[in-house]
Specification:
The chain is an alpha/beta fold. The protein has a domain of 90 residues: Nucleotidyltransferase, domain 5 (2-Layer Sandwich), CATH 3.30.420.270. Helices cover 31% and strands 14% of the residues. Strands 3-2-4-5 form a 4-stranded mixed sheet, with helices on one face. Strand 2 and strand 3 form a beta hairpin. The termini are far apart. 13% of the residues are buried.
Length: 139
């Protein structure tokens, strides 16, 4: 008795060829390894250097101040005013997220403090400053 495509008298495929699966997996791995460093978040800034540096968590709020004093929020490419920044930060209060402030080292310190004040005025109290680590050979 025959059911579907199984036949007793025919020899079916008894082995699975793993080589194409491994090849595709390795190609995808290489593609992701090449493209991952290109996914930089936010505006380009020259951060000051410090000794201590922890890995930045993803999913939090990043506020960037470039060398001209322009303010950017996460991946938004258009500069924001301080009042716009406060309004856009309000939804993050309920989520309890941390704010990571990235300020270019050429930026006026007073501008960084104005941005920090706007962040705390919006109701987010956990503000962290982002820096670039100093290489071990330059310490």
């Amino acid at each position: 008795m025959e059911f579907g495509w199984f036949h007793d008298d025919e020899e079916g495929l008894t082995e699975i060829n793993i080589t194409p699966l491994v090849d595709v997996s390795l190609v995808l791995l290489i593609i992701f390894m090449i493209t991952a460093p290109m996914l930089v978040q936010g505006a380009s800034v020259d951060l000051p250097r410090t000794r201590a540096m922890n890995k930045l968590p993803s999913g939090n709020v990043f506020v960037t101040v470039d060398e001209n004093g322009d303010i950017y929020l996460n991946d938004i490419d258009t500069p924001l005013e301080l009042t716009d920044l406060e309004e856009r930060l309000i939804p993050f209060i309920e989520l309890g997220q941390s704010v990571y402030l990235r300020g270019d080292k050429a930026t006026n310190y007073g501008r960084i403090m104005e941005v920090m004040d706007a962040i705390t005025s919006a109701g987010l109290d956990n503000v962290n400053l982002v820096t670039t680590p100093v290489p071990l050979n330059q310490r």
